Amino acid sequence: MLLHFIRFFFIVILFAALFLSITSQVEDPDEAQRLTQTQIWIVFIGGLVLAVVVLFIDWLLPKRSLSALAGVFFGLIVGIFFSWALTLVLDMINEVFKIGLEGSNLKLTKWMMGICICYFVISFIMRTKDEVRFIIPYVEFSRQTKGVRPLVLDTSVIIDGRISDICQTKLFDAPFIVPRFILNELQLIADSADKLKRTRGRRGLDILHKLQENPHIEVKVDDTPPPGVDEHAQVDQKLVAFTKNCDGKLITNDYNLSKVAQVRQVDVININDLTNSLKTVVLPGETMQVRIIKPGEESQQGIGYLDDGTMVVVEEGRGKIGERVQIVVTSALQTSAGRMIFGKYEKSANGSDENGNGAQAGYRTRKQYS
Question: Dmax over Cα atoms in the chain, in whole Å?
Fold first, then answer.
């Protein structure tokens, strides 16, 4: 929108400069009035042709939809400097090659050249401002974040769906941002020929729609491309650059993406870490009840699952498949990728019978998982 306004403003200034230059060449008011009436169409057509040529050349340049007021001011300063330098070159060329530009004609040429140069520089800066830091070190147009830092959502965490339940608890008060390329990736997955991927993509779109309808949070789609990253780069690379540029926090459950973001000094909220920190800690020696579902990889091992999906590996539990048994916890492994509990089945654990009917101090944990 800002770029369209600059183009319109450029055309208005161009016509005004042409009109004032022609009328200022004649000192007699009557002759100036007659000159304006006879040559107004020439001024209009000439200005229109010049504006069309300039805008057409600008349209041929690579497009990037970025708009920043800082880019306009910086481009204007650079354009004025180049215009001043080129006026000196124009004077030198006029004197050496005897072009014949004098008085108002020379002034008009300098004005037209200055306007066109300022417009080109502003337009170029606005669309390539992310690469300015490669040309001018330590100069970079970055977004300034005020208040709470925004939360940038990853594709995996949207499809996972747990973020919607967490938002219902009013834990987050910061705005959520979904980059345009993340939304495009969700749409691409939803349109996949693979049935499983198509289901995941549609689930992600439904979760995103549910988040937008949540009155306790603010969700917006940002069209700003990540700075300094090629358009065809991987989504993870663009996501890290986008989060760093907006000074936000990345929400994901992708372990590898979390590590890459931490290397780039981007704050990460891993949903797996969040859910694991809220789970009740299981200590070695405590007892719990679990249903053995399938045999394990090792001999005499059985595999069971708690209600929250945590996998439990039970030693001496292969012969109890399909039964609910009481075990003694030997160890627990908790990582960003999930949690595993290791236990051992015993016929008599802490004085209780095989079905776990005893009452011990550690039964609070068993009751919580039953």
Answer: 118
List the domain range (segments joined by +) for residue 81.
Answer: 2-135
CA dist 88 and 197 (Å) reads 64
Query: How big, in percent rounded to 5, are the helix, strand and coil portions of the chain?
Result: 55, 15, 30
Tell me which residue has tokens 């069971």.
304
209 and 224 share one domain: yes
CA distance 143 to 122: 18
Three-class DSSP category at 168: helix
Q: What is the pLDDT of residues 145-199, one digit of tens each?
A: 445 788 999 998 999 888 888 888 888 888 899 999 999 999 999 998 888 889 9
Q: Is residue 231 within 8 Å of 188, Cβ to Cβ?
A: no
Arithmetic mean of pLDDT, 207-218: 89
Q: 296 and 262, same structural domain?
A: no
The CA-based dihedral angle spanning residues 220, 216, 199, 201, taken in that order and rounded to the nearest 10 degrees: 20
At residue 349, the 3 state secondary structure works out as strand
Local confidence band at 133 (pLDDT 50, 70, 90 cut-offs): very low
What pLDDT does 6 receive? 73
Contact between 288 and 366 under an 8 Å Cβ cutoff? The reply is yes
- Of 25 and 300, the structure prediction assigns the larger pLDDT to 300
